[in-house]
Automatic annotation (TrEMBL):
Name of the protein in its database record: Methyltransferase
Organism: Bradyrhizobium sediminis
Keyword Iron applies: no
Domain of life: Bacteria
Gene Ontology molecular function: any one: RNA binding
Membrane-spanning parts: none
InterPro entries: KsgA/Erm, SAM-dependent_MTases_sf
Keyword presence, Methyltransferase: yes
Keyword field: Methyltransferase, RNA-binding, S-adenosyl-L-methionine, Transferase
Length: 199
């Protein structure tokens, strides 16, 4: 195969994902965290906060076409540990095809307890979120992180990215420690990863 053809073949899945993402964003912009899938550097930054040595589940909220899911697997998270909570039925079908060993839950992450009630048998090692939190009212954000902490093992991370310059969830939550990555300028638009842990 000529070099140009092989390069085109490698780029095609990414282009297809971008088209799917853009179409979904046009149809329901407030349900999407971004216009395009997360960039590789952003996805890798999020994945680095997940413990690969644990056998506990890793819950991903709003995986879309799987950009962060890929980074989690490349980081060393066994696909069987992944619980992917996705609202869009088209993305769910795509995720089931791409990650046959993962558990794909078609559900609303903003009603996380309902979506996970019969799925998680043990506390999760991490919740990794690609949800558009800053588009939601603060009470909705606080309910989401409260529900995420209920699903997590003590001290396990809730990992969230945002394009905003302010944290998506206040840093002053009682009993919750917060850390942030450096701003990821190579992502379009630039983003930051926030990590919340409850003891």
């Amino acid at each position: 195969m000529p070099l140009q053809s092989s390069v085109r073949a490698l780029k095609k899945p990414r282009l297809d994902d971008e088209v799917r993402f853009l179409r979904s964003w046009i149809e329901k912009p407030l349900h999407m965290g971004a216009v395009m899938p997360s960039g590789k550097i952003l996805a890798r930054t999020m994945a680095q906060y997940v413990d690969v040595d644990s056998s506990a589940p890793v819950v991903e909220l709003g995986p879309g076409t799987g950009a962060i899911t890929n980074a989690l697997i490349e980081h060393g998270v066994d696909q069987k540990r992944l619980v992917l909570v996705e609202y869009n039925p088209g993305f769910c079908a795509l995720l089931r095809d791409r990650y046959p060993q993962a558990t794909v839950v078609q559900g609303d992450a903003y009603t996380l307890r309902d979506s996970l009630w019969d799925v998680l048998k043990v506390p999760a090692a991490a919740v990794v979120s690609g949800l558009p939190l800053v588009t939601k009212p603060m009470l909705t954000r606080l309910k989401l992180i409260r529900d995420a902490f209920a699903a997590l093992a003590p001290g396990a991370p809730f990992v969230q990215f945002t394009y905003s310059v302010v944290p998506p969830i206040p840093k002053s939550l009682p009993g919750v420690s917060t850390e942030a990555s450096e701003r990821i300028w190579m992502n379009l638009p630039p983003a930051r990863v926030w990590v919340y842990r409850k003891g």
